[in-house]
Structure to design on (264 residues):
């Protein structure tokens, strides 16, 4: 065969993870007496564990910190399970990680600042959890990030200025949180952006006209915020709810469309 076997240290990390996530209740369980290469959802290459795909497999309990000793991991997909607790700071050990999908779980606490150290990350999906606190200030260090989906949590505060440095972003979905503050004209840097959803937050100020310059943008939802001022007809047509905002009393109103040709 010639296939390298998984190290004892990595096997122990997986076993610790299995027990912490209540492996005996999984839909498809691991037979711990068998080689790691036979375990469901574990991708091994050259004796290294590079992927864990355990979506919708009835994982519960917590994500063991031992998991973050598996430093060759490129992809983690645990979406649609019942995992709870916080994401450990030591997640920054996973320097090779490109995909992190933990959506539709019960994770709480802040997104650890150390996530910003995962410089190869392309896809970060944490939607539909119970995450709180502000976004990491240095999140913009994730220069390779193409997909950032944090919808339907309880994340608050303003967008970190660094976020506008993520010029590879194609999908940015932050809807259904408690985010506030205004949008920067630096949004013009999102030249690859195709889908932007900030729906149902507390953003205010004017909608930056620079959004119009984003040639790739084909889906937009800024409604149910507290934006004010005027917007262009093009943006209104692009927005899923035609820019329906909420005033201070929670009453809906439509942003005015600026008449591009009106005399100054």
């Amino acid at each position: 065969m010639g296939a390298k076997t998984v190290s004892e240290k990595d096997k122990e990390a997986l076993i610790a993870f299995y027990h912490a996530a209540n492996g005996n209740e999984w839909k498809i369980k691991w037979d711990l007496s068998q080689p790691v290469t036979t375990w469901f959802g574990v991708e091994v290459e050259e004796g290294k564990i590079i992927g864990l795909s355990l979506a919708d497999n009835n994982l519960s309990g917590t994500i063991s910190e031992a998991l973050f000793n598996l430093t060759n991991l490129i992809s983690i997909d645990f979406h649609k399970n019942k995992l709870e607790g916080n994401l450990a700071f030591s997640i920054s050990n996973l320097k090779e990680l490109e995909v992190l999908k933990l959506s539709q779980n019960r994770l709480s606490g802040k997104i650890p600042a150390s996530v910003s150290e995962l410089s190869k990350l392309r896809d970060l999906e944490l939607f539909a959890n119970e995450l709180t606190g502000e976004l990491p200030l240095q999140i913009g260090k994730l220069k390779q990030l193409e997909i950032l989906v944090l919808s339907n949590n309880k994340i608050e505060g303003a967008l970190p200025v660094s976020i506008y440095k993520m010029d590879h972003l194609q999908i940015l979905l932050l809807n259904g949180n408690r985010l506030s503050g205004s949008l920067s004209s630096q949004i013009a840097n999102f030249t690859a952006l195709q889908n932007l959803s900030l729906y149902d937050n507390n953003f205010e100020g004017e909608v930056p006209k620079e959004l119009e310059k984003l040639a790739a943008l084909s889906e937009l939802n800024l409604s149910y915020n507290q934006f004010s001022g005027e917007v262009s007809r093009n943006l209104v047509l692009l927005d899923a709810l035609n820019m329906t905002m909420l005033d201070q009393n929670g009453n809906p109103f439509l942003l005015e469309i600026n008449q591009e040709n009106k005399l100054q």
